[in-house]
Amino acid sequence: MAFPQTRMRRLRASAALRGLVRETSLGADQLVLPLLVSESGPPRAPIEAMPGVERLSISEAAAEAAQAAALGIAGVLLFGIPSEKDAEGSGAFDDDGAVQLATRAIKQAAPELLVITDVCLCEYTDHGHCGVLREGPRGMTVENDATLELLARTAISHARAGADIVAPSDMMDGRVGAIRAHLDEEGHSDTPIMAYSAKFASAFYGPFREAAGSAPAFGDRRGYQMDPANRRQALREALLDEQEGADMLMVKPALAYGDLIREIKDQSRLPLAAYNVSGEYAMVKAAAAAGYIDERATVLEILTSLRRGGADILITYHAKEAAKWLSER
Ligand code: PBG
How does the average pLDDT of the chain come out, rounded? Predict the structure, then answer.
């Protein structure tokens, strides 16, 4: 029945009524805070485009993680910034590398907090690409299959250090299957894989690459990361990762990719993460600093929308502030 019998506003009349019919929940236990851990440099180094985010030493990372745990945040996602880089990115699978040391320190400081480790080579290679290079018929390319070995070594090293979940972000073909097989062989069959399944070649990673010093020295990542124009291909990537043994899937970036969050959610039964990336954070912070938007309301609206879109897990640099705001309301 239509107006005047049907009046949609009836259920919006009070806060209690709105609460009763609210379809989507948002809690700190769905949030993951990314941390950039640096092998050298000052204990805390600010990142210009990302106010409130700093590059951290191992011990500061442990302190930050303990704070996140106290706020009820589910986990941290670790990125390492090595003091030396080489062609193979060997710092990625160094058992005493930044991610490995930080993992051990965080598991001590906050045992209940989930430590998720980013598995990729781009922060560790001197050329800034996500794998090993080979001269091909069309110039330098990232060699897929040789890179798989190094990614698997990295994941094993993270698991050995105590990582609760490993998260490959390189976009090589077959990496989930290769990492799963090698983890199992090494006795880490209980370590879940969160696959960056639909990861796009995105301009929204700019501030992160500045902070991690991981911008490619030549070319770009379009030879392995996805074309933002492709929807069907994103579904294929997600379903392939599921077949290869992924335990969770991810869409990245988040804000301009809500259609894919919904579609992947509908087509797979795996838990789904959305990564609200550095450039998305920078935009909100810049607009809020200029007084153009209300930061708290904007952030909670964004995170609620990602949940409504189908994300079970939200990876966001806003996690600490969001958790505080959620506990106040
Ligand atoms: C590594 C990686 C990147 C990000 C996460 N993992 C950089 C990239 O792919 O260039 C970006 C994260 C962010 O922007 O917040 N491959």
Answer: 97
The 10s digit of each residue's pLDDT in 4-21 is 999 999 999 999 999 999
CB–CB of 120/92 below 8 Å? yes
Question: What percentage of the chain carries pLDDT values higher than 70?
Answer: 100
Ligand 1 pocket test target in 79, 208, 251, 284 with most atoms within 8 Å of CB: 208
Cβ–ligand 1 contact at 278 (below 6 Å): yes
> How do the domains of the chain map onto residue ranges?
26-328
**Cα 165 to ligand 1 centroid, rounded to whole Å:** 17
CA–centroid distance, residue 225 to ligand 1 (Å): 11
Write down the catalytic residue from 252, 265, 285, 320: 252
- Residue 138: pLDDT over 90: no
Pocket test of ligand 1: the residue of 77, 117, 120 to mutate, having most ligand atoms within 8 Å of its CB, is 120
Q: With 90 as the cut, is the pLDDT of residue 1 above it?
A: no
Task: Pick the closest to residue 205 from 120, 145, 287, 93 (CA basis).
Answer: 120
Q: Is the CB of 196 under 6 A from ligand 1?
A: no
CA distance 246 to 242: 5
CA dihedral 242→244→245→249, nearest 10 degrees, is: -40
Predicted local confidence at residue 292, as pLDDT: 98
Q: Is residue 169 lining ligand 1, measured as CB closer than 6 Å? A: yes
Which fold, 26-328?
A: TIM Barrel (3.20.20)
Tallying the residues shown for the chain, one arrives at 329
Is position 85 annotated as part of the catalytic site? no
CA–CA distance, 55 with 38 (Å, rounded to integer): 6
Q: What is the pTM of this model?
A: 0.97
Residue 265 known to be catalytic: no
Average pLDDT score over residue span 127-149: 94
- DSSP type of residue 227: P
Q: Angle between the 295-309 and 319-328 helix axes, to the nearest 10 degrees?
A: 100
Query: What is the per-residue pLDDT for 13?
Result: 98
So what's the pLDDT on residue 58?
98
